[in-house]
Design a protein that fits this description.
With about 200 residues, the chain is mostly helical. About 75% of the residues lie in helices and about 0% in strands. It has 9 helices and no strands. Helix 4 packs antiparallel against helix 5. The longest helix is centred in the C-terminal third of the chain and has 28 residues.
Length: about 200
């Protein structure tokens, strides 16, 4: 319980900012859904052929590439967001990268429904909803926690100190990515997923 209270202490200190992130996340999801439905009119298009778990489900890549690609994709977003949070003038860029991550996840999610049909990939979609919610929550906590140490001369040292929440969040992202890969692999191996 003490761990959970430490995790959400930054949210209690920055409640207004956290609510702002939630609102922006909802807007990113709405824009992602609209972009997926009106693919030709989308401001930022997402190429489904480059999505690593779509490649894996189609059989275009192996398990090792799938796991490495998934962890690398999340790691790139994490590193960019952490670096952008180091200074206040770069902070809006961190929020934009986070919103693009959520936007792209929403576009892919809705595109899967539109291409393959909701009943053909229902189990995958349920799992993706949980994955996207967890991903959004962890990144919102990272961005909120970074706000309190922004402009610190020892920013990176503080981020990755042993008692830092951000270090725990980064480990959580790796664990989430590995779990995502393992569950998708199990779904592909043992449950019929009609993704061609």
């Amino acid at each position: 319980m003490n761990i959970l209270s430490n995790f959400f202490a930054c949210v209690r200190r920055q409640t207004g900012f956290f609510i702002f992130l939630i609102i922006m996340t909802i807007l990113a999801i709405v824009f992602g859904v609209i972009a997926a439905i009106n693919f030709d009119g989308a401001i930022v298009t997402i190429d489904l052929a480059n999505i690593v778990y779509i490649k894996f489900l189609k059989g275009s890549c192996g398990v090792a590439y799938f796991m490495f690609g998934s962890i690398l994709a999340i790691a790139v977003y994490f590193i960019v967001i952490i670096l952008c949070c180091c200074r206040r003038f770069l902070y809006p860029l961190a929020i934009l990268f986070y919103l693009y991550l959520i936007y792209s996840q929403a576009v892919v999610f809705v595109s899967i429904i539109l291409i393959y049909g909701i009943f053909n990939v229902l189990i995958l979609l349920i799992f993706l909803i949980v994955y996207i919610i967890m991903l959004a929550l962890i990144f919102m906590l990272i961005i909120t926690d970074c706000l309190s140490i922004c402009d610190s001369p020892f920013y990176l040292k503080t981020c990755f100190s042993m008692n830092s929440n951000i270090l725990i969040y980064s480990i959580s992202l790796v664990v989430l990515s590995i779990l995502f890969c393992l569950i998708v692999w199990v779904l592909k191996a043992f449950i019929l997923l009609l993704v061609y």
